[in-house]
């Protein structure tokens, strides 16, 4: 029986392999979409986009997969989920690639995974062999939909992510930027830190994380890039065999649509923590990386911060007012930020540095840069893009940022736009975006013993009410018939000193009494033009008398558990 069992198992495995091969043979041929500067894009039937960038001069291959999910896509209680998943998919898959980290090491590959606002990406760079390429593609296809997102592994990996969170919390510069960015964005998820809230990291239910994984880790939400020394025809066929068998998901991804409103005034942040160096941070809203003005903003940042010619560099470093300064742009799918920062020694004035930064940045438009200054920055930027294209590994990773914006060709579009930037463009965007009403600034003051108000967590309501005993119920009111006949039959009327009095006795909840007095006065001639005076007079009646102050009057009402309201018009007071 034992021998027959293993024989039968072998037959089943052979049949399974044959079925898989037949399925791969029946797959639609990938569709060629476009080509640009040595990179060709294809699309599989299930929606996966594939970029091939052959470079026979290299001895390595880089496989990079970009998922179009980042902290921008996270909902309430989900902050940090994209980054947490980045860690979890290295744990392994359910059957084929159970120890991903070990396999990567066994193949001698360099690797990493990164998460940002618009995307998450993974890459491996390894020696250019058919066996290595087959392994890398098979592993990425498997962990796309079969990653072992288990509760037990979440519990261990959560502590790793929490340590990463705490490391950031110990860096005042990072915390200050986080506070400034979250203050600059009132509604958009770009204001949320990619690492997430500590409570979300610690408490995320495994079912929620699994659902998030199944929603976004799908072929129609990913772009696969292979760069380096490989055969494009064989590789595309192999990709189709590995990834093409994954079915296109039935779910439909809803585009994000929250737009940040125009900032309408300066915003300021103060941070007091233990630290050794003072920090200043400053952010300004700028257009999306897809907008023509973005490139000019990016050049402007370099004109301000580039060493040694930048205006901020000269104003802060040459004068020894700050020990360092920097700036960068958020090149994103939706409108982002420019962020500037400076470190200031404790014996220097951090407030004066802040004022210098504001003046230098916001007065930039009044003194246009020379074309020579602009060309210097342009030359540097174009050089960096050309060097990027000479390195297959860096291309694989660097393209993720442009893929996240919507199309990998934006890399070349950015370079082409950069070549066209003029000094007039710089001056125009400086005047348009770098102004006080668009500024969010902050200062970190090192504080030896910060005096914080620690807010306790909400308690469990069952614990709070476990010994609760209610007081005696208030008196119940009667079921009252509000018909005119019933009201008339129960109402008693009389006159006292010329005042008409109507009394309607009935049982009310809590034995409360409701009284209403209406005073009518004047005639058409005497009341003409008295509307404002009448309104003010009624307001003053609750503000005190000759015998009782306003507070005494209010205290007496509170003792009686009473409320009084008075309104007035030219012809009556109620």
Description:
The protein is of the alpha+beta class and 574 residues long. 41% of the residues lie in helices and 18% in strands. The protein has 20 helices and 17 strands. A hairpin with a 2-residue loop joins β1 (31-36) and β2 (39-43). It starts with a helix and ends with a strand.
Descriptors:
disordered N terminus; 7-stranded mixed β-sheet; 5-stranded mixed β-sheet; Cytochrome Bc1 Complex, Chain A, domain 1; 3 domains; 574 residues; extended; alpha+beta
Count of β-strands: 17
CATH arch. level architecture of the largest domain: 2-Layer Sandwich
Can you list the strand order of the major beta sheet?
1-2-3-7-4-6-5
Tell me the name of the CATH class of the largest domain: Alpha Beta
The outline comes out as extended
How many helices does DSSP assign? Answer: 20
Short description, anyone?
The protein is an alpha+beta fold.
Helices and strands in order, then pairings?
Elements: H1 2-25, E1 31-36, E2 39-43, E3 49-54, E4 60-67, H2 81-88, H3 100-106, E5 110-115, E6 120-127, H4 130-145, H5 151-169, H6 172-184, H7 198-203, H8 206-216, E7 222-228, H9 232-243, E8 267-273, E9 278-286, H10 292-305, H11 311-316, E10 324-329, E11 336-344, H12 350-362, H13 371-389, H14 392-405, H15 410-420, H16 423-433, E12 439-446, H17 461-464, H18 484-490, E13 492-496, E14 499-503, E15 519-520, H19 531-540, H20 550-559, E16 568-569, E17 572-573
Parallel strand pairs: 3-7, 8-12
Antiparallel strand pairs: 1-2, 2-3, 4-6, 4-7, 5-6, 9-11, 9-12, 10-11, 13-14, 15-17, 16-17
Helix pairs in contact: 2-5, 4-9, 10-13, 10-16, 13-15
